[in-house]
């Protein structure tokens, strides 16, 4: 199955252009690995793949024509994906050696590692992990070369059926007729269906891998299918990076929003209500109100008009928008009302288009900015539901901007400014920015795409924001900017997106009357800043580990009377603080003060006020700060000033 072709004695020369625009002439047939070796032995040792004219390729792929090339290491996102994808094959090969009857599902790279879905009658447990890791180490020592072969669908089906890999046969059946090339990668006796590319040999993967957990996962994420065993693992080029990752995982466990949501009594998911549907408890609902209230105020200050739309609409609306064609598998089944079919909304967009069309718009009206915290419903398979991060009912912080083509860059700058201001308010100041360009299949004109893409690019450059081009990854209806925020653990979360939409304005025939008296199509920007309230709330819980800033804390002050005789003053302190708009509770339980303090610490209340005989006698309070201990006695006016000062800093 060796796909590597020798360059022979050809004397043809090609020109290689590096990311810094420097160039080098090499012989036709030279591989990226050859080029890495010419640059430095260090780079050659660290290299895992290459990017040639934007396409990720093996280090051993011969270059047949002049090209732009970048040598990829583990430091680059694409390099990590190749490294982890190859590591998934390494783990699968070890499992197949230990349990030949195992059938393989899929094994993709994910954030910080990889997994593989396995169909095996025997339950794999954490006790088996050292055995699998030992076999993986043997395969690394064997330094097996990875070889690629392109197969016809018939040949691929025949090969995997003979090897009793029925899940792979199903995947190939799904690929038939798609026009997608079917390829397989082999290393030693192991062959897997895969697009690739991979590292040149198993020796490149080292031995700093760690199997992390095993969980159930429905095949294709569909609960109607068989439950497979999903084995999660990770691998790093050196032991130090692995240790850092394992430390982050331990910290992430402590911050798991599902556990903290339960412990802090913020939200719950009840199977009687339905999977993926969130019940907001009083404290969580209060925090949600604070987030939404801030969101509304910021949007009103930025010139948006708030709108509100129904949770259902006639199915015809979704036929007009195209969702029934493009998005039906993620929509709940229609319901019939008076012999007319209605649909739970999966998006807010069609409603906003309809509001825009409710009257004739002039160029003088533009830009028109509609914003809504609109709850939508999407059919996510139960196998992929995950706390607040993946749900079936959620509230999008949605907005659509309708503007004149000349206003496009300024509107995008306005969105970027609003986005930065809002994210900073919640404690996020670091993010990765991506500009996604035109895919192969698109609606609209090439001229329109170029204008929109250039406007997005120009806005990013005016704001001096570092960004990466994501070629061909725009959605079919327009180019976009994606912003991934980084939390305190350095994890990336996709939240903000700014998309130019050529599709819905056409489908809903949106127009405005320009200065020439003629009707023209407005440029439409679809944007979400927080993504969804549910998911963003989950990210906030994990970012702060439940220790929310004072302005967001559901209980800002807990008053702790030592005995019953101190209740009267405790309630008086509570009322005085409530009158100043602070959120205050009193713990009147018949418990010792030490227990009450520990409970308030566990509940992550920022300020604790202790009231005993001395405080009543002197008409003062004793103050404790979470994690800092006793700060001594003070007048209540001093406490109020301290609270105001901290809120002003936040």
UniProtKB/TrEMBL annotation:
Enzyme class, one word?
Answer: ligase
Q: Where is the TGS domain?
A: 12-73
Ranges of residues in domain Aminoacyl-transfer RNA synthetases class-II family profile: 256-549
InterPro entries per the UniProt record, alphabetical: aa-tRNA-synt_IIb, aa-tRNA-synth_II, aa-tRNA-synth_II/BPL/LPL, Anticodon-bd, Anticodon-bd_dom_sf, Beta-grasp_dom_sf, TGS, TGS-like
Q: Which cofactor does it need?
A: Zn(2+)
Which reaction is this enzyme known to catalyze? Answer: tRNA(Thr) + L-threonine + ATP = L-threonyl-tRNA(Thr) + AMP + diphosphate + H(+)
CDD domains xrefs: TGS_ThrRS, ThrRS_anticodon, ThrRS_core
Task: Please give the NCBIfam families that the UniProt record associates with this protein.
Answer: thrS
Which family does the entry's similarity section mention? Belongs to the class-II aminoacyl-tRNA synthetase family.
Q: Give the protein's recorded name.
A: Threonine--tRNA ligase
Gene it is expressed from: thrS
């Amino acid at each position: 199955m060796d796909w590597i072709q020798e360059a022979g004695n050809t004397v043809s020369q090609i020109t290689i252009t590096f990311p810094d625009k420097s160039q080098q002439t090499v012989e036709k047939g030279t591989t990226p690995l050859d080029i890495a070796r010419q640059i430095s032995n260090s780079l050659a040792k660290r290299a895992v793949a290459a990017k040639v004219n934007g396409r990720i390729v093996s280090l051993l792929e011969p270059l047949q024509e002049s090209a732009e090339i970048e040598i990829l290491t583990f430091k680059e996102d694409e390099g990590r994906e190749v490294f982890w994808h190859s590591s998934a094959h390494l783990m699968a090969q070890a499992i197949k050696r230990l349990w030949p009857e195992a059938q393989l599902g899929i094994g993709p790279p994910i954030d910080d590692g990889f997994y593989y879905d396995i169909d095996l009658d025997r339950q794999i447990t954490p006790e088996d992990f050292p055995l699998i890791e030992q076999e993986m180490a043997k395969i690394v020592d064997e330094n097996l070369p990875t070889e690629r072969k392109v197969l016809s669908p018939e040949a691929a089906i025949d090969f995997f059926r003979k090897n009793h890999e029925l899940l792979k046969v199903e995947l190939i059946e799904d690929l038939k007729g798609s026009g997608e090339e079917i390829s397989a990668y082999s290393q030693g006796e192991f062959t897997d269906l895969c697009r690739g590319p991979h590292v040149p040999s198993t020796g490149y993967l080292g031995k700093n891998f760690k199997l992390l957990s095993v969980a159930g996962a429905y095949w294709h994420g569909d609960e109607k299918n068989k439950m497979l065993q999903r084995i999660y693992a990770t691998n790093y080029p050196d032991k130090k990076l692995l240790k850092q990752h394992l430390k982050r995982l331990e910290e992430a466990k402590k911050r798991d929003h599902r556990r903290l949501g339960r412990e802090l009594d913020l939200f719950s998911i009840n199977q009687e209500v339905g999977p993926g549907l969130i019940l907001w408890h009083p404290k969580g609902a209060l925090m949600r109100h604070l987030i939404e209230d801030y969101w509304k105020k910021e949007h009103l200050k930025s010139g948006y008009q708030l709108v509100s739309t129904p949770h259902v609409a006639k199915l015809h609306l979704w036929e007009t928008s195209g969702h029934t064609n493009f998005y039906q598998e993620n929509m709940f089944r229609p319901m019939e009302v008076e012999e007319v079919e209605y649909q739970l909304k999966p998006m807010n967009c069609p409603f906003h288009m309809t509001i825009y069309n409710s009257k004739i718009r002039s160029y003088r009206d533009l830009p028109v900015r509609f914003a809504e915290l609109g709850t939508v419903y999407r059919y996510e398979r139960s196998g992929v539901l995950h706390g607040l991060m993946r749900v079936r009912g959620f509230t999008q912080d949605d907005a659509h901007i309708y503007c004149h083509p000349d206003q496009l860059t300024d509107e995008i700058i306005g969105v970027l400014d609003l986005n930065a201001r809002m994210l900073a308010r919640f404690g996020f100041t670091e993010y990765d920015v991506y500009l996604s360009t035109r895919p192969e299949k698109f609606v609209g004109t090439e001229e329109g795409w170029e204008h929109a893409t250039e406007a997005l690019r120009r806005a990013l450059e005016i704001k001096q924001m570092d960004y990466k081009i994501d070629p061909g990854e725009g959605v079919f209806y327009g180019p976009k900017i994606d912003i991934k925020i980084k939390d305190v653990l350095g994890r990336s979360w996709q939240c903000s997106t700014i998309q130019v939409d050529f599709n819905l304005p056409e489908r809903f025939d949106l127009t405005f009357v320009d200065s020439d008296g003629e009707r023209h199509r407005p440029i439409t920007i679809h944007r979400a800043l927080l993504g969804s309230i549910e998911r963003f709330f989950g990210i906030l819980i994990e970012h702060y580990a439940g220790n929310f800033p004072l302005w967001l804390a559901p209980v800002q002050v807990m008053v702790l009377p030592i005995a019953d005789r101190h209740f009267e003053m405790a309630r008086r302190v509570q009322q005085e603080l409530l009158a100043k708009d602070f959120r205050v509770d009193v713990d009147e339980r018949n418990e010792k003060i030490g227990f009450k303090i520990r409970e308030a610490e566990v509940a992550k209340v920022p300020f604790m006020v202790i009231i005993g005989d001395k405080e009543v006698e002197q008409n003062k309070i004793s103050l404790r700060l979470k994690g800092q201990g006793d700060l001594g006695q003070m007048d209540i006016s001093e406490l109020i000033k301290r609270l105001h000062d901290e809120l002003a800093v936040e």
